[in-house]
Amino acid sequence: MKKIYITKTDAPAVVVHKILSCPDDDIVLYVPKGSVFVSDPKNFKLLKREVAVVRKDVTVESVDGDALELAAACGFAVADAIFKKSRFPLADIVPAGEKKPRGTMVIREECEKRCETVCEELEKETDLPKSEEVDLNQTDAEENVWQRNREKRPFKKVIIGFSALLAVVLFVYLGIFILPRADILITMKKTDWSFSGPVFASSSISSVSSDNSAIPAEVFKISKNGVYSFPASGSKKVENKASGKLTIYNSYSSDAQPLVKNTRFVTPEGKVFRIISSVTVPGAKVIEGKITPSSVDINVTADEAGDSYNTGPVAKLRIPGFQGTPKYDGFYGELKEGASGGLVGEIKVPTEEDIRNAERISREKVEGVLRAEIAASIPSGFKTLDGTTDIVTVKNGDALDVNEKGEFAYGVMLEARVIAFREEDMVSLMREKFRKEHPEDFDLKSRDFSYGSPETDFSSGKVKIPVEFRSVWARSLATDSFVHSILGKNESELKAAIFSIPGIDGGKADLWPIWVNKVPSDPEKVKINIE
Predict the structure, then answer these.
(1) Which of 56-65, 112-121, 167-176, 362-371 bottoms out in mean pLDDT, i.e. has the lowest?
(2) How many whole angstroms from its chain centre is CA 104?
(3) Which pairs from 372-378 meet CB under 8 Å and 24+ separation?
(4) Which numeric CATH code is attached to 235-346?
(5) Mean of the per-residue pLDDT values of the chain
(6) The model's pTM
(7) Does the structure show a pLDDT above 90 at 398?
(8) pLDDT tens digits, residue range 39-78?
(9) Which residues contact 122 (CB under 8 A, 6 or more apart)?
(10) How far is C-alpha 407 from the chain's CA centre?
(11) Domain boundaries in the chain?
């Protein structure tokens, strides 16, 4: 048996449609308490007529006693949805001794009798609509969605009502406290002013002087050096002796041993090297009866010129002067790194032209680096001009020995002296000069500087600068005081306050939103723009 539920707001056409569209012949129709279907008795008669046409057996179930009574009166079997039994047991109307089956059929016979009476009364009042006039096109899915929305309407109405009230309160709050603002545009009269003449910047003064047209200056010193390699184009015949560093050991005694300049040391191959200066070899250390040699390092040169004395490390060189004595074995030398530089022949040397070119190129390279260093080193806010920088050579490097590639190295050190001034000091000077001609309070609105070729004295740290200054000024306005003076004023009062400003050329005020006719009391809501 199929059970169909209708909602409280289902129209009669919807109820009929649900019954007729159900494929089952045995149907239980659940009618909720408070259903609009129960509000008119004609609805049950209409339903009865339609189900009779399609031969469907419909039982009405409800907790609503009125619904069950009307359904039973129109011939429907009924059942109480709570107690699951008939509201009309009918046992008391069965004749005595007669066995009549109870249940649905008994209820139907009784309901049919009551239905005829009810239907006759309904027909007298009004005619029922034809079954074909009922719109049965609405689908169950649509009905269910519609019904769920209907059941939510009371809650939605509360939400919508509360939201509307909240929106009104919010709108009023915004309109009174948040949205109102005043935008005021004030145009001041402009005054053009220019200056043309020399200005003196000096490191010996500390403040601006309009009488002397002088401003402070600072001298910055920056140095840079560089060493570069250049090819040598000249040559000369040379006889060079090999040289190296000799370590002299004393393993003879704990007494120090002096050696005079040019003392000879001989390699195992018989090559002689001489020490270039006198030296004293410290005494050996005696520890637990054993001698630990001491040593000293000294430079030596070969006894003869030529590359035959160029040698690698030599472990032991003897002193011929000690031969035949115990000291011969106790004193010896070691060339740990060998000897080099011995040569007889021609070598590459830089010519005077090579050196001049090396000096010029080295200076250009170092100066380029130095000028970049100047740009990076001058503090922000300082102004430098062409002609206020002096670069001098502090030191030129001597031409060094030519290496095996035929190149020599040349170095140079340069120092830059830069006289710089703060352009804000220049503006302050112009401001003081302007105020002497216009003692009222003015604001500088725009400015433009141009500088001529300076005359610089680097020794005293002074520079004379030709200056062209063009500017536009306007009367000053204390905006904070003005804003507080117009708070809460109406439009006419605001207009009078604006045009009472000294030096004004025009003004415009915009109070927003449209219903606002006074300046807000909050100064944060007042915006002043000055042109």
Answers:
(1) 112-121
(2) 82
(3) 373/222, 373/224, 373/416, 374/220, 374/222, 374/416, 374/418, 377/220, 377/222, 378/220, 378/418, 378/420
(4) 2.40.30
(5) 83
(6) 0.48
(7) no
(8) 888 889 889 898 888 888 999 998 888 889 899 989 899 9
(9) 41, 42, 45, 128
(10) 53
(11) 2-138, 178-189+476-530, 235-346
